[in-house]
Design brief:
By secondary structure, the chain is an alpha+beta fold. Helix content is 36%, strand content 15%. The protein has a four-stranded mixed sheet with strand order 1-4-3-2, covered by helices on one side. Strand 3 and strand 4 form a beta hairpin. Helix 2 packs across helix 3 and helix 4 crosses helix 5.
Length: 176
């Protein structure tokens, strides 16, 4: 992950905790390695055992393997919840200097149908409302399919639901 701009940056797992959520043990071990960038060898106790079960019997994750994340999972593992909070975290912290000052950055929730994408949006919106209530961001606009925040640096980020489309044309032309 690119280093965030906000000097008050915290790790993803701490961000989730600050939102008032408690990750399950497997989610925590996964998040520490996949999102916080820790190596399995740096995690202790039962979390380390879980990380090794999730990522394999390895002590470190090669840099080339950290660029892509693919999950094979079942239902009720909290994947949509975790992905929604990760998207909110990135929308709040990621550097946006490659975009023009007036350009809107997009974080999108994609699914085969809008109804399914809106599940993730609701998780992220709950977190955004919490952050707005603490003065960390401004919640500027809410619609049925998304919401817009104003970050600590004044940049606007739009979180929006998109249904899957042939060739991905529903998300073309917007900086994601």
């Amino acid at each position: 992950m690119t280093a965030p701009q906000d000097p008050g940056f915290v790790s993803f797992t701490r961000f989730v905790t600050q939102l008032g959520h408690r990750l399950r043990p497997g989610q925590l071990a996964f998040s520490k390695v996949a999102y916080d960038g820790l190596e399995p060898r740096d995690i202790e106790g039962s979390e380390r055992d879980l990380a090794r079960r999730i990522f394999g019997d390895c002590e470190t994750i090669p840099d080339s393997a950290r660029a892509v994340l693919a999950k094979v999972k079942g239902r009720d593992g909290g994947g949509t919840f975790l992905a929604a909070l990760r998207l909110l975290y990135l929308g709040v912290t990621l550097r946006l200097e490659r975009l023009g000052q007036a350009e809107l950055a997009y974080c999108f929730f994609g699914a085969p149908k809008l109804r399914l994408a809106q599940i993730a949006k609701r998780f992220a919106l709950e977190g955004a409302r919490f952050l707005a209530g603490n003065g960390d961001i401004e919640l500027e606009a809410e619609t049925a399919d998304g919401f817009t925040i104003v970050r600590h640096d004044g940049r606007r980020v739009r979180f929006e639901c998109f249904a899957a489309s042939r060739g991905g044309d529903n998300t073309r032309g917007v900086p994601i």
